[in-house]
Specification:
0% strand; mainly alpha; single chain
Length: 381
């Protein structure tokens, strides 16, 4: 119902602009158009509130479920590892201590974040839209201060994601299981074709462990700032996302599912570059064409990487791990499914925002509703 109301609103708007509506009485038609527009917005708000309520409690349930799953898995992880390690005692099986370097990398990532955000202040000020530089009222002045901080953070994330994506491709690009979908030469099923237990004894290229530690340090840093920064309207979503992501990185490494884990890390890092770029661009005075172009590029890349490529990885695990699944394998796979559901939800929200930019010729502003919440007094990404 929510999507049908939106579609009806867009069709009516486009048809009226293109002159497809009857032109008997312009004043009457304009009045009807305004009334229809108001009614459509009210319907969107009501449906959005209902939808937001459902998703809010669904994400809370997923958080509780994830925490229970993590605790339960801790009791089975040693048995899982011992059952595999005994088949090849010479293989350097990963240990928890192999992830300790992430604790040393973490303060470096934090310092890097703070430094980039401070250095980009002048750049952000030059790019910020005129309505924020010359606020007409107190509300706009508050928003201007908010977006100065936000845009600096987006600069940091674009820089970091670009750097770690290039580094990740350098480390993983030549592996036999790095798929063509992501610019490699191999295929994802190749990692599971040797069967049990040979699939777990995969070779790791140089800097593989460093790539894992750097990724873990980044997400832990982001998790910390999730609590110490101003609360966002998507806090629950991001809390669940970070719980799943950090758990996947740690457990996949310890159980030596790091081959599939490294691909999932790369997939997520790469698809976030344009995500933060569009969040920067929409708060500048660039022509609406560039807003639309950047938004279209981001949505296309996001759906491709997060729906198609990531979905193919989840299906590959389900299809090609033909041996008995333990609780650890189920736990990791369920975390992936939760992330995939979140990506589907985000894709629908992104598509809605893109339609507002292109079809409604409307810039992304603070009255856009996210998860059915009115964000007039909340800060959204």
């Amino acid at each position: 119902m929510f999507l049908l109301n939106k579609l009806q609103y867009y069709i009516y708007y486009i048809s009226s602009k293109m002159g497809f509506t009857k032109d008997k009485d312009k004043s009457e038609e304009e009045t009807n158009s305004q009334n229809n527009e108001k009614n459509a917005k009210k319907n969107q708000e009501n449906e959005g509130e209902k939808e937001g309520f459902f998703w809010k409690w669904f994400w809370i349930f997923c958080i509780i479920f994830s925490i229970v799953l993590i605790i339960a898995s801790c009791f089975f992880i040693n048995d899982f590892n011992n059952n595999i390690k005994k088949h090849n005692l010479e293989y350097p099986w990963p240990k928890v201590s192999d992830l300790f370097p992430s604790l040393c990398i973490l303060p470096i990532v934090i310092i890097f974040k703070i430094t980039i955000e401070k250095l980009s202040k002048n750049f952000v000020e030059n790019c910020l839209a005129k309505k924020y530089k010359q606020p007409k009222n107190e509300k706009m002045e508050k928003l201007a201060n908010i977006y100065r901080h936000k845009l600096a953070r987006h600069v940091y994330k674009v820089v970091f994601y670009t750097g770690i994506t290039i580094f990740g491709y350098f480390v993983l690009g030549n592996l036999p299981y790095f798929p063509k979908w992501m610019g490699g030469r191999g295929s994802t099923p190749a990692m599971f074709l040797p069967g049990f237990p040979q699939s777990y004894f995969h070779e790791k290229p140089p800097l593989f462990n460093f790539y894992y530690n750097l990724s873990l340090a980044y997400f832990v840093c982001d998790f910390i700032f999730l609590f110490i920064s101003e609360r966002q309207s998507d806090f629950i979503n991001m809390l669940l996302h970070h719980i799943c992501t950090i758990s996947l990185i740690i457990f996949s490494f310890i159980t030596n599912y790091s081959n599939i884990g490294s691909l999932i890390i790369f997939c997520h890092m790469e698809s976030d570059i344009l995500g933060h770029l569009i969040r920067f661009v929409v708060h500048t005075d660039l022509h609406i064409f560039f807003h639309g172009l950047t938004g279209f590029s981001f949505i296309t890349n996001f759906i491709y990487m997060r729906q198609f490529v990531f979905g193919e990885m989840i299906y590959t695990i389900y299809k090609y791990i033909t041996w008995k699944w333990g609780i650890i394998t189920y736990m990791l796979w369920l975390f992936l499914v939760i992330l995939y559901i979140m990506h589907i939800r985000w894709s629908s929200i992104l598509f809605t925002k893109f339609c507002q930019i292109v079809f409604m010729k409307k810039r992304v502003t603070d009255d856009i509703k996210f998860e059915g919440q009115n964000t007039e007094n909340k800060k959204i990404e």
